[in-house]
Amino acid sequence: MATTYQLKRADFIFKNENDWEKVLSNILSRSPQDLINELISSELKGRGGAGFPTGLKWKVASELATQPKYVICNADEGEPGTFKDREILEKVPYKVLTAMVACGHVIGAREGFIYLRGEYRFLMPELQKVIQEFEYYLKEIKQDFTIKIFMGSGAYICGEETALFESMEGKRGEPRNKPPYPTNFGYMGGPTVINNVETLAHTFTIFKYGAKKFYDLGVQYSRGTKLFSVSGDTPKPGIYELELGMSLQDFVYEFGDGDTKAVQVGGASGFLVPRKKFADTAIGYQGKLTGISLPTGGSMMLFNSSRSMYNVLDNYLEFFREESCGQCTPCRVGCQQLLLGIKAVKRGDRPASYLDKLLRLTETMQVTAKCGLGQSVANSFSSIVENFREEMIY
Amino acid sequence: MTTQKINISLNGYNVQVDKGTMILDAAKENGLIIPTLCYHKDLCIAGNCRVCVVEIAGQKRLSAACATPVEEGMEILTNSLKVRNSRKHIIELLLAEHNADCTKCYRNGNCELQELASEYKIMTQEFIELVPFKTYTIDMYSPSIIKDDSKCIRCQRCVRTCAELQGVNALTVAHKGDEMKITTFMEKPMNSVVCTNCGQCVNHCPTGALVEKNYIEEVWEAISSPDKHVVVQTAPAVRIGLGEELGFEPGSRNTGRMVAALKRLGFDSVLDTDFTADLTIVEEGTELLTRLKKALKDKDPNVKLPMATSCSPGWIKYIEHLYPEYLPNLSTCKSPQQMFGALVKTYYAKARNLEPDKIVSVSIMPCTAKKFEAARPEMLDSGYRDVDYVLTTRELAIMIKQAGINFSALEEAKYDRLMGDSTGAGVIFGATGGVMEAALRTAYELVTGREVPFENLNITPVRGMEGVREATIKIENPKKEWAFLDGVELKCAIAHGLVNAKTVMDSVKSGKADYHFIEIMACPGGCLGGGGQPIPTSPEIRKKRAEAIYAEDAGMAIRKSHENPEVIKLYRDFLKEPNGELSHKLLHTKYTPRERF
Using CA atoms, how far apart are residues B499 and B505, in angstroms rounded to an integer? Predict the structure, then answer.
């Protein structure tokens, strides 16, 4: 058994540096192209979970002539088991705001919004104060950029970027058809860069210390560090900044309670990894060479042997059944079918082979659902049912 | 400007299509039908049923054909195994959610979900039926529309119809996930919200979730009662729509066959709403000229202009809800249906020597709002319920089928008298701009003594399918008593579909528009696209129906309302004069301001 595990801890995000004015004025003195190149060479990928290259996103939006453009910070942190964005906005909000102004400078936007999760209303007064400070400074240096907070109302789906736009526009929070993508047609139809809170905080690090410092951390395809929200059967739940690319085995050595049966990587929409696959699983973005690599928005839930995987799945499906926006068939009806289906199998009303029918249904959901929610229900369902089939039946 | 052509491959065949075309349309152009449910030609793209998914080479996920534009070099598979399996799953899911008690459904035989299930031969229900797990409401409060949530497949076509075509937003989506449903403001019943009863949601619903409240059995019972005299009137747009339900192509004219069928169904007298359409023109035209006189000559500040037409009950309810301050601008004329009803139980009863309470007055309408209109509390001016039952074009087709009548083999018949004579001006009431055209034909001639200065009386500027149309007619050399109108440019506006009514009303409200007369029809295309017309509807179908309407007009011997001999007789024998005392009692009405939600 390998004991040379090493979790590479890092401390960038929460390092409290009271120098945002300096960093910002330095950023604003650089050309948009220069900043884009810096971001691209850092290989920073979206920290919300989907992992789209941030530099590319900014680049596409910067190249469009359409005005007005918008910068949106996605703070609708709703994935079960994730609580890192809240911490960032509480501890180092100025990093996020600096990054938003930087993005506005790069793409040519004059308006920025923070879409704040409904349950995070308590963050608002403090955040508002910091925004005021920023606006005062921006006025002083004659930088034309405003930041407003938009309060969400508690729907999980509104974290999906296009549903978020709909919600901001005063409509029902339902995902749009893609294409067009937000960089071309986002909030109010304008080119929009929408980034996760953590992604923005990382750009602060990159612009301050240079891309190389960030790039040197992590592994190929998964550069830099990432915040992890660790919860479940662990003696030390909390938020940790770690380098990407670690093996799940190492993670469990550090955070497990000695009896870890499985880890859910990436929240309800992520994958469940059973003990036997810990060593073969890395935490990072999918790449051509990295083997099994699981992305995560930061949620790491540990389960020990006292937990029934049936109950875990039942809980996730209950969540999806309720949080699906309900517009597209595969997600709305599919989630209900999966939940009722595993209950029926458990009760013995349907044969065990019905699980295979449901697995095929998740394949359909994965390829036909309109947005990431419906598409990713298959992740937890298939990884739990395939690895813990007996717990589903008996 | 020519659109750029790009190369794509469809199921292995290389084709060229316009850049920016959606995959669904590109496939259709090339003879490939991709099934759809939430897609409708009248509406914006939703892409939420996912039935139309197709495979694009190099992409793991399938794409909705209705919502994905083609790109150069795209290789599309519309019928791969992956597509078929997914599509079948989606149909199965919809069926699991849908109350698939097809034999007891009003839309049995004309349901898009049923068609798909049949096409894909879904013979078993492998998923768990969701209907028994839920409680559904069947909203039967509205006199026009029944809404049954258990049959709803959440395609949101009704929601988009109510918002995009009508701008009413009575129907909307509420809740999320498994509880997501189509409902009204505060989930109130349909009769106590802003709903105008226009029935466009019924016309656009793919299943039986939204249907008209039908009165077929009531009418059969009346027909079968020996002591009842059952009179039927048929609206202008019914004659050119009915055929579609009975095996004819859209745009087929079936006036004579329809009359013959109605006689065979056992109605005692088959009469024509076109007659009261002509009467409406005389009454409304007189009203317009009176208002113009008061405004332009007497400078009476209390006169409201523009005057708006009042034939469309959907429009009436709309303005009552959303622009109640403009109710005085509405013509006080009842709609042709209600004028007819009031006359049947007075003038007709007297002339035919019948007891009014023995008369059952039935109307066949392209409209669901007419059911509501007939039930309005003020529609009792004859001393009785002016119109007892309103049937849609679809309900009439059902009755014809139930009676076993071979419609296409019928010999054409003529309307009965009294109140069966009509003119070309009456029939064009069925198309948007028709009331305007008919009114201008009469008013211009009343004022100048000459026919309207358009070839063959066809006032083409007011015709067409644009949402809002404007026209100006200059009055020259009027008769002596209308001298104040000399040189006046009569400004008219025409709108169809309530979303366009909103445009017109907003420009009136803002003072931008100085119209004298506006015609508004609640439904797209006017009555020919009404909520009671055959399903499906589309811009092409409505265009064909409009052509048929104008062909009917062109084929009429008399084409001006004031020349209708029965209308002349009616004034001579009964009403005495337009806008006279009896007219006001029987043919005019008042309106009720309503809440905005």
Answer: 10
Catalytic residue selected from B147, B213, B345, B370:
B370
The class level of CATH for A309-393 reads mainly alpha
Q: Which long-range contacts (C-beta less than 8 Å, at least 24 apart) are formed by B326-329?
A: B326/B505, B326/B508, B326/B509, B327/B591, B327/B593, B328/B304, B329/B304, B329/B305
Domain extent for B19: 5-79
Residue A288: how many CB atoms within 10 A of its CB?
A: 7
Interface residue of B24, B38, B48 to substitute, partner A, most A CBs within 10 Å = B48
Q: Is B117 on the interface with A (CB under 8 A)?
A: no
Phi-psi region of B497 (alpha: psi -120 to 50; beta: other; left: phi over 0): left
CB B411 within 8 A of CB B260: yes
Q: CA B559 to CA A314: how far, in whole Å?
A: 71
Question: CA angle, corner B386, sides to B385 and B390, nearest 5?
Answer: 95
Whether B351 and B249 map to the same domain: the answer is yes
Helix A54-63 to helix A93-107 angle (10° resolution) is 40
pLDDT number for residue A294: 84
Detail the DSSP E strand segments found in B112-252.
138-139, 145-148, 172-174, 181-183, 210-212, 229-234
CB contact under 8 A, A326 and B179: yes
Q: What is the largest CA-CA distance in chain B?
A: 81
Give residue A6's pLDDT: 63
Task: Determine contact, residues A84/A44, Cβ cutoff 8 Å.
Answer: no
Which CATH entry fits the domain spanning A218-304: 3.40.50.300, 3.30.450.20, 3.10.20.600, 1.10.760.10?
A: 3.10.20.600
ipTM value: 0.94
Residue of B126, B221, B378, B451 marked catalytic: B378
Judged by CB atoms closer than 8 Å, whether chains meet at B45 and A177 is answered as yes
Instruction: Return the CATH number at B383.
Output: 3.40.50.1780
B153 CB near a chain A CB, below 8 Å?
Answer: yes
B284 noted as active-site residue: yes
CA dihedral A245, A247, A253, A256 (to 10 degrees): 90
Contact A329 B51 (CB under 8 A): yes
Which spans in B246-403 are helix H?
A: 255-265, 273-292, 313-322, 336-343, 349-351, 369-374, 393-402
pLDDT digits (tens, 9 = 90+) for B212-234: 999 999 999 999 999 999 999 99
Specify whether the CB–CB gap between B167 and B502 falls below 8 A: yes
- Domain co-membership, B231 together with B161: no
Q: Say whether B304 sits in a helix, a strand or coil.
A: coil
Average pLDDT, chain B: 96
User: What is d(CA B394, CA B207) in angstroms, rounded to the nearest whole number?
Assistant: 15
pLDDT digits (tens, 9 = 90+) for A110-152: 999 999 999 999 999 999 999 999 999 999 999 999 999 999 9
Beta carbons of B489 and B483 less than 8 angstroms apart: no
Query: Does any CB of chain A come closer than 8 Å to the CB of residue B173?
Result: yes
Do B109 and B177 have their domain in common? yes
Q: Which of the residues B527, B552, B560, B583 is marked catalytic?
A: B527
| Cβ contact B178–A324 (<8 Å) | yes
- For residue B154, the chain A residues in CB contact (below 8 A) are 326-327, 329, 332
Is 50 exceeded by the pLDDT of residue A3? no
- Cα–Cα distance between B81 and A363 in angstroms, integer? 13
Give B511's contacts (C-beta < 8 A, 6+ positions apart). Answer: none
Same-domain check for residues B109 and B200: yes
d(CA B366, CA B378): 22
Q: Which of B55, B97, B245, B284 is catalytic?
A: B284
Of B61, B127, B173, the CB nearest to A367: B61
For residue B75, the cross-strand partners are B9
Task: Please list the residues that pair with A45 across neighbouring strands.
Answer: A53
